[in-house]
Amino acid sequence: MPIEFLYLVIVFVVAIVGFSVLKRPLYECMLAAFVVLVAVTGTWTKVGVYVWDALTEPSMYVIIVFVVSAALLSKTTIIDDCIAIILSVFGRLRGGAGFVAIIGSTYMGSLSGSGPGNVATTGVFTIPAMKQSGFPPHLAANVEAHASTMGNMIPPAGMIAIAFTALDKLYPETYTMSQYWMLLWGIAAIFILQRILTLYFLCRHYKIEAMKKEELPSLRAALKSGWKAIFLPVIVLLPFLLTSNYAEFFEQRLGAGASALNSSILLFIPSLIVLCGMALSGKKIIKKFTPNYVFGQICTGMTKVVPTSSLVLFAYFVSNVLADINVETAIGTYIGGLNLPVVALAFILPLFTAVLGMLIPGSTQVKIFGGIFIAIYAAAGGNPMLAAGMLPCICGATHGVTPPYCACVYTAMGIAEADLSATLKENMIWILLHYFLSAAILAGFIPVLGLL
């Protein structure tokens, strides 16, 4: 067994002991795990590189900006107007606001390519709506987080191109992107249905009922007083639609700057949302947003986001060390050498990527481990295109929700003001269901549109 297994065990032991036994905050435990890992691997000379790479990771700043912006946006009237419209349409259904979150966040995630950013852009609408319709805060946080991560496995998400590249290198001119996208949509349909059913049964577990008729806002009244709120989701969605559907247009005119535009879009959208929210709320709200008031709200928002952003930052420290010492490649090669049958690999490979997802970003997993995963699965008799299609599902869709990293869950939890323990406990239900469904698809127990 490669020594890289030991490195992973060390990280988890330090984090678990610190959090569960010593009762220290999780971000402190992750920093301690980083220090211990560097000491064990003898990579002290590269600490500066690990830290710098983490500090230049855009997703960390996305979390900070969006959570702070959510605090400002909550002081406008536009969110209340959005919630009123959502509830007037879907409040008659048990858990209706939750189903809006699943469908809306899944679609939005396919455009943004960022799980935490997607939680923040759609969560500021859906999470308050869920809470107002009777959802416990921790359930609202988990619904939004697990819906948002699915965006990574639905075209045209960026991770999909990375996975197809790995497939095309192993099997050149064998599969087309059109075939691959059809498969991905077939896989996505299964997981969307799974999340809808999960929400359906959880709503019954928590005894969430449809809102009483007298509590429901009238659609006509909601639209009359808050029709401007309809423009806010459009404003949020428009930049993603433009950069996604007209990528060639931007590349021709911006060249290398096109990638910078895609990276920065999630950073300037929060400010755009707040400004539009203020403008659409009317003069009274605009006057309230004095420099002193805005500064005070930012300070309030920062007290919520610092623990989360610290945890994400320190998790990136750890992931940079693990990537540098090629943990994924070593362990993937070891698993391949076991010559396991497809059914066994169907359960082992998603578990392996779920464990790595606790610390290593999904896109990094696909880049490093993608080719090995496809080759191992195909050598055992599996369909290589199915393996490539499941890569975004078991890497990208689990990375943001598996503790201790789980940036999507922490972001949603901050917006929902949910309890950490309750949120993480219920989070395990969603993770396990995702894992077993992934294993069932890879084992061939569930047919997928695109392979039929």
Task: Provide a descriptive summary of the structure in words.
By secondary structure, the protein is mainly alpha-helical. The chain has one domain. It has 22 helices and no strands. Helix 6 packs antiparallel against helix 7 (115-132). The chain is globular, with a radius of gyration of 22 Å. The chain starts with a helix and ends in a 10-residue tail after the last helix. The model has no long low-confidence stretch (mean pLDDT 80).
Structure at a glance:
This protein is an all-alpha fold. Helix content is 77%, strand content 0%.
Key attributes of the depicted protein:
single chain, 452 residues, mainly alpha, globular
- Please give the share of residues in helix: over 70%
Mean pLDDT rating: 80
Tell me the domain tally.
Answer: 1
Runs with pLDDT <50, length 5+?
none
Element order, helices and strands?
HHHHHHHHHHHHHHHHHHHHHH
End-to-end Cα distance, whole Å, is 38 Å
The beta-strand count equals 0
Report the sheet-strand fraction: under 5%
Largest sheet: none
H/I helix tally? 22
Structural class, judged by helices and strands?
mainly alpha
The radius of gyration is 22 Å
Question: Mind sketching the topology for me?
Answer:
Layout: H1 4-21, H2 26-41, H3 47-55, H4 58-73, H5 78-90, H6 96-112, H7 115-132, H8 137-148, H9 158-170, H10 177-205, H11 219-226, H12 231-245, H13 247-254, H14 257-281, H15 283-288, H16 291-324, H17 327-336, H18 342-357, H19 362-379, H20 384-399, H21 407-416, H22 420-442
Helix pairs in contact: 1-2, 1-17, 2-16, 3-16, 4-7, 4-14, 4-16, 4-21, 5-7, 5-11, 6-7, 6-8, 6-10, 7-8, 7-21, 8-10, 8-21, 8-22, 9-19, 9-20, 10-20, 10-22, 12-14, 16-21, 17-19, 18-19, 18-20, 18-22, 19-20, 20-22
